[in-house]
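Posting for a labmate who doesn't have an account.
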Amino acid sequence: MQSVPFWRCIMIKSMKKTIAISLFLYVCVGVYAQSALEKMLSSDVCRSANVSVLVKNMRTGETYATYRSDNVLPPASTMKLLTTATALEMLGADFRFETTIETDGKLSADGTLEGNLYLRGTGDPTLGSQKVGNQMFLCKWAQQMALLGLRRVKGAVVADMSFFDGDATNPGWLWEDIGNYYAPGIFSLAYMDNTMNVQLRSAARGTVAEVVKTIPEVPEVTFENHILCTSIQYDGAYVHGMPYNNVRYLTGSVPSDRGIFGVKGDLPNPGLLLARHFTARLREAGIVVDREAEYITVPQTDADGNSVERNVLYTHLSEPLSEIVAETNINSNNLYAEQVFRYLGSRIATPTTIRNSQDIVSAFWRNRKIDMSACTVQDGCGLSPVDAMSASLFVALLTYMYKSASAEAFKASLPVAGESGTLRGFGVGTALEHRLRAKSGTTSKIKSYAGYIDTADGETLVFAVIVHNPKGKVKNAQAQIQRFLTQLVDEIKK
């Protein structure tokens, strides 16, 4: 940033005095901001790291601090800003996912259905979720079937997961993540957060922890168990496995002599579990179901290759997208982000693919004059190390969303420093507390933040900071970023 000598300001004629003062103050702010940034960049933590920074005034567009703002880096969970902004713009804050109960048979006068019941999902992440939605929805589904006069299903309840293609795991994810609760398979029928809790019995140091049961019960799942009971005082266990595969590998360690100890992993086939639970609910309601639950992953066709016609008996609607987006950003929910991301691809074709989703997100923002040429969109949640974004792209996105028709829902979805979600412990006791609203991103090698800061004098700053490969632990990078942003806001107040 070029500075303006003070003597030039005082030589300006009185009629231009206001302009001169404003320019001088802007230059001073820029100098102070760059000074604060230089302290962060020269710190032992960030000196050898890859960093991208941009801070601008939302109203004037003035740049307060910048460093390699066009360099693309893996942003971690800050990537969710791109996914949720795209969804709100394309679908609207009031959009609701649909899950339909359908049949390919006929219901006779005595209540007998000659055929199957199909549960056709389109990506709703809230079915049976602990985060958003009504967990009693299966009772309502069974009541609706009874109201239709259904008394017997001569077929089965079939989970239809054909709206998404069969590639349930993003190829850009690491093996060490796949199968853990934060990296579950992504299906058009998600259920119970696609998560199971593996109950272990922790015993003497040096022994292998015993698998007691899973919650929910998934009887066909087997475990290759290598979890040791050790002297650690935290959960160091991991679950690995692939979608549709019922073998789960347990590795790592847990504290010894702790009794029952829970480790979360993913459900291999959440749609099938949903079909089983609905079958049980129907039977409890007095409706006979002849066969056990089944699932399909490709669209149903007849002998001639034509789509099989079905009748829709009931349509379940999710909570509004605004609530789903809020859960996604405030609590950095990977499953919710990926379900939304995969649904966006259906605007190109169904069954939707990961490539569809990547293409439509990039094309949407290119059409709005935001340069996507250098970035890489591999997934919707930021778990992939292949994802690559720049500070300038995040600032352009945030600037666009600040003025969008979806601005209220978008801003409400961002955690607030010192108050909520992943920012509950950030900026406490500083000028950032209650004033910074942003999405954070964290892995063992990445710390990033992007969002808005409302200053005491009524201005709004839009900013993005990405630090990749800091020295030591990423919490040290977090401290440096907090110090930089705090110093910047403090200088603006002066």
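Reply:
Got it, the structure tokens are right above this. The longest helix spans residues 17-41.
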